[in-house]
Automatic annotation (TrEMBL):
Enzyme class at the top of the EC tree: oxidoreductase
Cofactor(s) annotated in UniProt: FAD
Keyword field: FAD, Flavoprotein, Oxidoreductase
Protein name, as recorded: NADH dehydrogenase-like protein
Family: Belongs to the NADH dehydrogenase family.
The EC number(s) this enzyme carries: 1.6.99.-
Organism the protein comes from: Paenibacillus allorhizosphaerae
Domain annotation FAD/NAD(P)-binding: ranges: 5-319
Pfam family, one: Pyr_redox_2
Domain of life (superkingdom): Bacteria
GO MF annotation, one: oxidoreductase activity
Amino acid sequence: SRIPRIVILGAGYGGIVTALRLQKQLNYNEADVTLVNKHDYHYITTHLHMPAAGTDKPDNARVNITKLIDEFKIDFVKSTAVQIRTEDKKIVLEEGTLSYDYLVVGLGGEPETFGIPGLKEYALNIRSINSVRYIREHIEYQFAKYKREPSCTDLLTFIVGGAGFTGIEFVGELADRIPELCKEFDVDPSLVKIYNIEAAPTALPGFDPELVEYAMNVLKNKGVTFKIATAIKECTPEGVVLATGEEIKSATVIWTGGIRGNHMLEEAGFETMRGRIKVDDYLRAPGHDNIYVLGDCSIVMSPEGRPYPPTAQISMQQAEVCSHNLVSQIRGSELKKFEFKPKGTVASLGRGEAIGIVGSRKIKGGVASVMKKIIDLRYLYIIGGIPLVLKKGRF
Ligand code: FAD
Ligand code: NAD
C-alpha cells in the first residue's frame, strides 16, 4: 500500500514542534511528511514585542526552518496556503497543490478587529517579522518627521489598543525605547505620550489583581498612560475615537485587542468560533478523523467549560499529543487524549521587570524577569538545542 502523506500547515509553535517530533518518532518509509510555511523561517512570536518597539533586532526573533528540521526526513515547502479542500484532501498553495492523507493545521491567529471601523486600514499589528519591522520603522519615522514639523506633537503620541498580555508587553518595551529615540532625534521626552487603552474594567482581565496593579505601576512610572474601561470605537488616519466620544490624535495605533483563527478555516466549511475550531479530545476537527488543529486555530475547553487562552505553551503541548496520535493512527495503535497542563504565565514589562504566576506562586520584578528569560531560553533549547540558545538567546 501507498505511504501515507502528512501535510503540516504553518511552522509556528504547533507546526514546528509537530514536525520535530514526527521526524524523531516515524520510522523510515512510514510516512511522507511535508511542512508548509509562508516564509523560510520560523518566528519566535513570544519575542515580537521587542523588535516591534526596536529594543531588539528582528533577526533575533527568527530562525531558518532548514536549520531546525532534518530535510532528509521532512520536506519543507516555502509557500502560502490559500485553500483547504477537505472533499478531495488537497491544499491549494499560491503555487501548485499538495495532497494529504493526514493534515495538521497550525496556521496561527489573525488580528480580531470585532468589526471596529478603521482598524484594518489604519492600525498596525504585532503578528510577524514583517509586521514588527514595519512598526519599528514607522515609530522611528514619526520622530524624524516631527523634526520637520515641530508643531505636530501628535506625531509623538503612540496608542496601543488593548491591555492584554501583548499590549502590556509591548508598552513595556516601547517605554524603554522612547528615551533612546529622544536622544537620537534630539526630542524633548516630555512631548512623547504612550496610551494603553483597554475596554475591560481592568488591564489584563482575568489575571491576578495584585500583579496587575504592580504591572500598571511599573508601566506608569515609565511614562505609560492607561485608559481603562474605555473601548476604542473607531480608528481613523488621525488617531482613535473612544466610546466616550473623546478623540486622541496620533499617527500610530498598534492594535493588540485580540486574535482569531486563520480565515481559511471558515472558508473551508469548518464550524468555527472567532475563526477557531473546537477540537475533539484527540485534537481533531469534529467529523474529520484525519485533520488535527493546533494552537491559535484551535479551541480546547478547560474542565470548567471555558476555552483556554491561545498560547505558545498550549500549542507546544498540543504538538506532542498530535504527533503521538498521528504515529498511532498510522500504526493502528491507540490515540491519546489531550489534557492541558498549565505551567503558569510570565509577562515582561520591559527591561528587568516582569510579573507572573508559576505553579501557584506569584512572582514580580527582577525575579520574574529572570524567569521570563529562562522560559524563552528553554523554548530555544527544545527546538534547536544549545546552538540555538547561544545564537538567539536573550540573556
Ligand atoms: P504561530 O506561532 O502564530 O505560527 C503560525 C505560522 O503559520 C507562522 O509561521 C506563519 O508564517 C504561518 N502561516 C500563516 N498563514 C499561512 C499560510 N496561509 N500559508 C503558510 N503558512 C502560513 N504565548 C505564550 O505561551 N507565552 C508567551 O510568553 C507569549 N508571548 C507572546 C508575545 C507576543 C508579542 C505575542 C503576539 C504572542 C505571545 N504569545 C505567548 C502567544 C503565542 O505567540 C501564540 O499563541 C502562538 O504563537 C500560537 O502558535 P501557533 O502554532 O498557533 O501559530
Ligand atoms: P487578548 O485577547 O488576551 O487581549 C486583548 C485585550 O484587548 C483584552 O483585554 C480586551 O478587553 C481588549 N480590547 C478588546 N476590544 C477592545 C476595544 N475596542 N478597545 C479597547 N480594548 C479592547 O489578546 P493578546 O494580548 O494579543 O493575547 C493573545 C494571546 O496570547 C492570549 O492568550 C495571551 O495569553 C497570549 N499572550 C501571552 C503572553 C505571555 O504569556 N507573556 C504574551 C502575549 C500574549
